[in-house]
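Hypothesis: this fold can be encoded by more than one sequence.
Test: take the structure tokens below, design a sequence, compare later.
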């Protein structure tokens, strides 16, 4: 997926813990890229470094 730098979209922020099969939705963040969304969300929520690698941002699927 390609994102255009001229606008922001809303990403879903997920965290997958040790032993969990499915990640859990922990929030949403508007950004220009998944990495930008992850950085913004973790900074706003003061996430410690050990949790940072367990968190990721995904563009939500279109509702059918």
């Amino acid at each position: 997926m390609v994102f255009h730098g001229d606008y922001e979209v809303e990403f879903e922020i997920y965290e997958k813990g040790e032993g969990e099969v499915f990640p859990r939705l922990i929030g949403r963040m508007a950004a220009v890229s998944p990495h930008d969304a992850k950085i913004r969300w973790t900074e706003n929520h003061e996430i410690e470094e050990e949790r940072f690698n367990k968190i990721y941002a995904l563009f939500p699927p279109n509702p059918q």
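The longest helix spans residues 34-44. Strands lie at 9-15, 24-31, 55-58.
Hypothesis status: open.
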